[in-house]
Amino acid sequence: MGSLRLGLAQLNVTVGDLEGNLRAIVDCNKRARAEEVDLLVFPELTLTGYPPEDLLLQPHFVQANLDHLKKLIPQTKGITVVVGFVDRDHDLYNAAAVLSEGKWVGTYRKAMLPNYGVFDECRYFKPGREFPIFTDGTVRLGVTICEDIWHPIGPVQIEALQGQADLIVNLSASPFHTGRGAEREAMPSTRARDYEVILAFCNLVGGQDELVFDGLSGIWNASGKLVARARSFEEDLLIAEVDVSQAVRRRLQEPRWRFAHLSEPLSKVPTPEMLLPRSLLKTKKSPAPKPRTEPIPPTLEAAYRALVKGTHDYVRKNRFKQVVLGLSGGIDSALVACIAVDALGTKDVIGVFMSSQFSSQASHEDAQKLAEALNIRLLELPIDGIFNSSLQTLAVAFNKKATDKTEENLQARIRGTLLMALSNKFGWLVLVTGNKSEFGVGYATLYGDMAGGLAVLKDVPKTLVYELARWRNAKDPVIPARVFKKHPTAELRHCQRDEDDLPAPYRMLDPILKAYIEEDCSVEEIVERGFPKEIVQRVASLVNLSEYKRRQAPIGIKISPRAFGKDRRFPITLHLTAETDEP
Amino acid sequence: MGSLRLGLAQLNVTVGDLEGNLRAIVDCNKRARAEEVDLLVFPELTLTGYPPEDLLLQPHFVQANLDHLKKLIPQTKGITVVVGFVDRDHDLYNAAAVLSEGKWVGTYRKAMLPNYGVFDECRYFKPGREFPIFTDGTVRLGVTICEDIWHPIGPVQIEALQGQADLIVNLSASPFHTGRGAEREAMPSTRARDYEVILAFCNLVGGQDELVFDGLSGIWNASGKLVARARSFEEDLLIAEVDVSQAVRRRLQEPRWRFAHLSEPLSKVPTPEMLLPRSLLKTKKSPAPKPRTEPIPPTLEAAYRALVKGTHDYVRKNRFKQVVLGLSGGIDSALVACIAVDALGTKDVIGVFMSSQFSSQASHEDAQKLAEALNIRLLELPIDGIFNSSLQTLAVAFNKKATDKTEENLQARIRGTLLMALSNKFGWLVLVTGNKSEFGVGYATLYGDMAGGLAVLKDVPKTLVYELARWRNAKDPVIPARVFKKHPTAELRHCQRDEDDLPAPYRMLDPILKAYIEEDCSVEEIVERGFPKEIVQRVASLVNLSEYKRRQAPIGIKISPRAFGKDRRFPITLHLTAETDEP
């Protein structure tokens, strides 16, 4: 028996770009053939990109995806390829085509459709109900797609027990959030060991709007041991030789039926056999590649790299050359500047310091120092002239009403307008610097500091902003030390401090927000964790009352289990009198 | 045999407001008992409001909904009530409780969950799998919820054939769009006749963010004939006496099995019988109410009233006292002013004319005339001072680059900032006046004319804006005739005309947009309808390129089969080189 040389093509594709994505698939396929790969696996919906959203409702787009898939078939001489596409009969299916020796051998249709969190797959797809086993006469191959593999009783069980698969591949588009990498290690390992199958997980990589796919594709042997792991946050072609003979021999001696008696309907599920025109165990001329195990980045590094990747791909895939952001001298804009520079390079990031009568000398200096340390261009645009002429224009209407938040928001909006003017004039994308704590309680001005194309820190709470900035500074201290020490302030009036405007200091605010937003806790449950009732009620109120702002916020990069955006869908019109302290 | 007095409680509830909604239910129940109603039906998810969205992920909210439902039980002496709530075991269900004589008799769980368009029900609910029949020993009652009734093979069939129901009630939250009223007439009539059952459809009414529920609840007899119809766009308690005896007698003579042989698995569906503690056919002291059949409003009137209702409910449910909008002297702002006045009254609408060097005398006069005719307050805030000081501030950065769209967007953003300043100072909600054609191709300035809380015309194409304005003017000519005649212009530069900036005049643009956005046509298919290829490609490109603007747009009121917002979910990052003329 020869050995099976497995390739995982961890690609960074773009939604809708059938031509470009096919080109990337064909390129990768060429490289894999040159390396004598037997079985090459691509990520979920490789051809269309993920998630294609309502593009799927356009019949011509689905047809074009099928037409492009057909162009790939003749490219599969000497190899077996599993590639993600949208299948169609009367309905649509999230599917994987198995192509080999210039033939379309068969199709697997995803059975478990996620429709929670950021996922809307039931909006588009019907679930598959067949579990074909692809075999060359010796090895038995099962195919699954993303969610399919996350259920202990599901397609893996069916293919391993009913279908007697030796090797199960999984095409994924599994987005990053903090801690996800480790979950994605434990699960396939358990699944492989439980069902005594080799498991190969090929994940997408790259940013798509709110989502960042982090790669980390991997292969586990039938004992659940990791054989090889691909890179994180970067494209990769992971090639590893797996010993299928052990799994095959074990099956021949004792079929995998260990738990079959527990699941009565199992035997009713169709697992038709499809014959591959090519052995999966060809003898190779080239030596077996040394298995590569790239590291899973630790928590802070992973979050930072997700933000860098998300920023890079949003900017570049949307064909912007440069970005601009307001540098206030504070920690948020300092961190965004670092992320932008790490994503795009120093030449493509422009900072703008927009001073007012309320700006401190320290802020000015710190913005300058940061720009110097990062080696980025810094523009200075004072806003007092526009502010004064705005107040003059509004004076008749305001009719001597006392100064209040209006004048603060006005300053923020003047700044937003200036950044957008630079964006219009030079084609720069505006990066928004607000953080998750601010977006949570609405401590941000709509059309002001919320104006821009991408809110880099939208899913990063203020306390994590500090941690990430410290982590980045440890590598290279570009952010002035004073920025870490001073009290956060919007500098929209004299002696303003965030903590005076907010219901609680950030170290208390952030865990309350996490409990309310990410854990769906009630006010009562949060109070039981030791927070003052009045503060928790006020925070909950602010979250609900500021939904209208978030609905108009720019998209941000998801790094937590629940981000604002597609991940959390809340009504604006909402009365929750019992729960919060709303009027 | 007595007759069955049926009540349909067409309520306007608010999402999340369990206390307030319960109060409305109890009030209505009292009125119905006083009128000797036997069976009182409420809309879908009456208690929580519809759609509750991710509130449903909060276990304490679901618990509170159950607690509030229990408070209703003792109020059901002398009546049988069917009310919508969220049921829970391990999973959640969109459910209806049948309460009678102080007892919770049983629960129906919605079987067909819509997960398309604006609907996300698979995100929250599991489908019901039982179809209980509630009977007093004589009459057999089936319960269904909204989508359930739209499928010929589905719950109605099961309850009518397998369950031998005489009367099927449907609790709905069916949002308005143009033409929906007529569809909702034809379908229940057909369904009633096909299955020989009496059908009672109780719809929600009122605005909830993007959606307007238009009421028009109705009752059809077992021949498919309309017995009574409730009001459109307003709360109503529709009471009508229905002759159930005919349906009952017919069933006793010949059970409803006409099509049963066609659906093999039908007999396997559980239709348990639940005994009602009270007859549905009590003898009444009061005379039978005269059946009321309120009219379905014709197309333009329906669209206009949907916009009025949506505006009213968004403003009032979000507890705003007054609204403000920019009056440009053009047709869009004129129509929005009319809608706002019809929704809120003249005292609660403030117009602002914000002149610039590019404003024409005609625009100024027309804005003034409109404000006078509508009897609303008009503020005048010239923007030239702020515009000039902005240009001065930006001069250093712009470095003598030629004037372009930047200076046009700047004016729009200054206007947006002024309106938001008034909003902040006086608590006025800003109404946005842009239309669907502009939102479609991105002919609008983000944070400029797109700034505000509600985009009233977001789902109204420009050509329909004219029709609606003409319709409104026919009742009372408040919009100056000149506004209809002049060429649409943003007045952001000298001699500007929309039609020079746009790929095509509105009469050509609107059908192209409808085909591309609402009908999912390809560029090719639209060209086949007789439009020039270059123009269609350009329109398609603009639609895709402006997705980032729409993502940050305020919500609007859905009146078409596909509105921007929850109804259409498109990626921002998207390459469609083959389809459009993108770079």
Automatic annotation (TrEMBL), chains A, B:
<keyword id="KW-0547">Nucleotide-binding</keyword>
<dbReference type="InterPro" id="IPR003694">
    <property type="entry name" value="NAD_synthase"/>
</dbReference>
<dbReference type="InterPro" id="IPR014729">
    <property type="entry name" value="Rossmann-like_a/b/a_fold"/>
</dbReference>
<keyword id="KW-0067">ATP-binding</keyword>
<feature type="domain" description="CN hydrolase">
    <location>
        <begin position="4"/>
        <end position="244"/>
    </location>
</feature>
<comment type="similarity">
    <text>In the C-terminal section; belongs to the NAD synthetase family.</text>
</comment>
<dbReference type="GO" id="GO:0005737">
    <property type="term" value="C:cytoplasm"/>
</dbReference>
<dbReference type="GO" id="GO:0004359">
    <property type="term" value="F:glutaminase activity"/>
</dbReference>
<dbReference type="Pfam" id="PF00795">
    <property type="entry name" value="CN_hydrolase"/>
</dbReference>
<feature type="binding site">
    <location>
        <position position="409"/>
    </location>
    <ligand>
        <name>deamido-NAD(+)</name>
    </ligand>
</feature>
<feature type="binding site">
    <location>
        <position position="433"/>
    </location>
    <ligand>
        <name>ATP</name>
    </ligand>
</feature>
<dbReference type="GO" id="GO:0009435">
    <property type="term" value="P:NAD+ biosynthetic process"/>
</dbReference>
<keyword id="KW-0520">NAD</keyword>
<dbReference type="InterPro" id="IPR022310">
    <property type="entry name" value="NAD/GMP_synthase"/>
</dbReference>
<feature type="binding site">
    <location>
        <position position="549"/>
    </location>
    <ligand>
        <name>deamido-NAD(+)</name>
    </ligand>
</feature>
<dbReference type="GO" id="GO:0005524">
    <property type="term" value="F:ATP binding"/>
</dbReference>
<feature type="active site" description="Nucleophile; for glutaminase activity">
    <location>
        <position position="146"/>
    </location>
</feature>
<feature type="binding site">
    <location>
        <position position="116"/>
    </location>
    <ligand>
        <name>L-glutamine</name>
    </ligand>
</feature>
<comment type="pathway">
    <text>Cofactor biosynthesis; NAD(+) biosynthesis; NAD(+) from deamido-NAD(+) (L-Gln route): step 1/1.</text>
</comment>
<protein>
    <recommendedName>
        <fullName>Glutamine-dependent NAD(+) synthetase</fullName>
        <ecNumber>6.3.5.1</ecNumber>
    </recommendedName>
</protein>
<dbReference type="InterPro" id="IPR036526">
    <property type="entry name" value="C-N_Hydrolase_sf"/>
</dbReference>
<dbReference type="GO" id="GO:0008795">
    <property type="term" value="F:NAD+ synthase activity"/>
</dbReference>
<comment type="function">
    <text>Catalyzes the ATP-dependent amidation of deamido-NAD to form NAD. Uses L-glutamine as a nitrogen source.</text>
</comment>
<dbReference type="InterPro" id="IPR003010">
    <property type="entry name" value="C-N_Hydrolase"/>
</dbReference>
<dbReference type="Pfam" id="PF02540">
    <property type="entry name" value="NAD_synthase"/>
</dbReference>
<feature type="binding site">
    <location>
        <position position="438"/>
    </location>
    <ligand>
        <name>deamido-NAD(+)</name>
    </ligand>
</feature>
<feature type="active site" description="Proton acceptor; for glutaminase activity">
    <location>
        <position position="44"/>
    </location>
</feature>
<feature type="binding site">
    <location>
        <position position="180"/>
    </location>
    <ligand>
        <name>L-glutamine</name>
    </ligand>
</feature>
<keyword id="KW-0436">Ligase</keyword>
<feature type="binding site">
    <location>
        <begin position="326"/>
        <end position="333"/>
    </location>
    <ligand>
        <name>ATP</name>
    </ligand>
</feature>
<comment type="similarity">
    <text>Belongs to the NAD synthetase family.</text>
</comment>
<feature type="active site" description="For glutaminase activity">
    <location>
        <position position="110"/>
    </location>
</feature>
<dbReference type="InterPro" id="IPR014445">
    <property type="entry name" value="Gln-dep_NAD_synthase"/>
</dbReference>
<dbReference type="GO" id="GO:0003952">
    <property type="term" value="F:NAD+ synthase (glutamine-hydrolyzing) activity"/>
</dbReference>
<feature type="binding site">
    <location>
        <position position="174"/>
    </location>
    <ligand>
        <name>L-glutamine</name>
    </ligand>
</feature>
